[in-house]
Amino acid sequence: MPDPYPFIRPLLFRLPPECANNISVLALQCRLGRFLAGNAGSKTDDPILSQRLWGRDFSNPIGLAAGCDKDGRVPDAMLELGFGFVEIGTVTPRPQPGNPKPRLFRLDEDRAAINRFGFNSAGLDAVIARLRRRDRRGIVGVNLGKNRDSADATSDYEEGIRRAAAVADYLVVNISSPNTPGLRELQARANLQALLRRLIAARDRTSLAAPLLLKIAPDLTSQECHDIAEVALATGIDGIIVSNTTVARPACLKSRDARETGGLSGRPLFAASTALLADMYRLTQGKLALIGVGGVASAADAYAKIQAGANLVQLYTALTFDGPALIGRIKAGLVELLARDGFASLGEAIGASHTTRAGAGVTASPARR
Ligand SMILES: Cc1cc2nc3c(=O)[nH]c(=O)nc-3n(C[C@H](O)[C@H](O)[C@H](O)COP(=O)(O)O)c2cc1C
């Protein structure tokens, strides 16, 4: 079946971006996913794309990034589109409305978006109730945040871990959204160390052993990167997601809304987030699982993230421009790229750019897989 998205997109793009997003989620709730993906989602994944990580079997490394299904309405419909895993959230402990609208801007000429949602969330009660109703066949991570008016960020994350551990295949501590005042300060060394120690203890108290990941911003100094890598290794978290949206505004942006306040995602984020991913791989010596996210819109982009050190890759903004058939195209392209370069498995390609690029010399350790 031909891809229907090129015909649907002009209609969606006439709507305000947040409304277009909501309609897409609604279409998935109405089980129109198969139709929207042009049937690409129903294909079985090539075994070369499979990977076992954190005791879970990923049939392919392409995941949906946080922010698209904030309230966990359609994780299974998203998985049916062909994603290897889906991250829902960010979820805050209590429901909150987020920032006033408009708060999402599509930058068409730049294949990018700027958002300042500010953690609009249905809250843990509603989201966990939805996730409990799943039959839990695919891999779903839950991305956790804090309420805007909370006086104690650590307690908010502890509550998220304690309550979401039973319904999540992995948990994400999101301290990198640019749209919640003061949040990114939790990435500073002393704050991060104290936070992660408490959160790992909270996770361990659940006795469910859900892997705990940290999601970081792309706007870090090299000292901050060093600090995060050291603290991540010392505290024993299970992985890092690199990266959230950026507050930077590259000079190349052409779209009318390029100066809107918020986090920039999509194509202009690719280079910076991939460079940070490579740095994190080097700084953590290949000992931590990494998820690469930021500007992925093709198989070549996903492959670059994997070679820079990502076990898994996520995307969101490109889905808005290219529709769900993109997922199948990326997976097919990845299979070709792995075969072209003589890799027998995805695992062999992880971090490969560090060993092939002169002077780098980091090898993928088995601990990452
Ligand atoms: C509209 C929108 C909302 C987002 N909301 C969240 C969120 O709630 N939590 C989060 O961790 N990341 C959020 N993100 C960031 C994405 O998960 C991802 O890190 C970022 O967009 C880069 O990937 P991309 O270029 O493929 O979109 C959001 C991104 C967009 C575009």
How is this structure best described in words?
The protein is α/β, with parallel strands linked by helices and 369 residues long. The protein has helices spanning 5-12, 17-29, 33-36, 75-80, 123-132, 153-164, 189-206, 222-235, 270-283, 299-308, 317-322, 325-340, 346-349, 352-356; strands at residues 51-53, 56-58, 62-64, 85-91, 104-107, 112-115, 139-144, 170-174, 212-216, 239-242, 263-266, 289-293, 312-315. Helix 10 links the parallel strand 12 (289-293) and strand 13. Helix 8 crosses helix 9 (270-283) and helix 9 packs parallel to helix 10. The two termini are 36 Å apart. Residues 357-369 have low confidence and may be disordered. Residues 65-67, 70, 89-90, 104, 113, 115, 117, 143, 174, 177, 215, 244-245, 265-266, 269, 293-296, 315-318 line the site of flavin mononucleotide.
In short:
With 369 residues, the chain is α/β, with parallel strands linked by helices. The chain has helices at residues 5-12, 17-29, 33-36, 75-80, 123-132, 153-164, 189-206, 222-235, 270-283, 299-308, 317-322, 325-340, 346-349, 352-356; strands at residues 51-53, 56-58, 62-64, 85-91, 104-107, 112-115, 139-144, 170-174, 212-216, 239-242, 263-266, 289-293, 312-315.
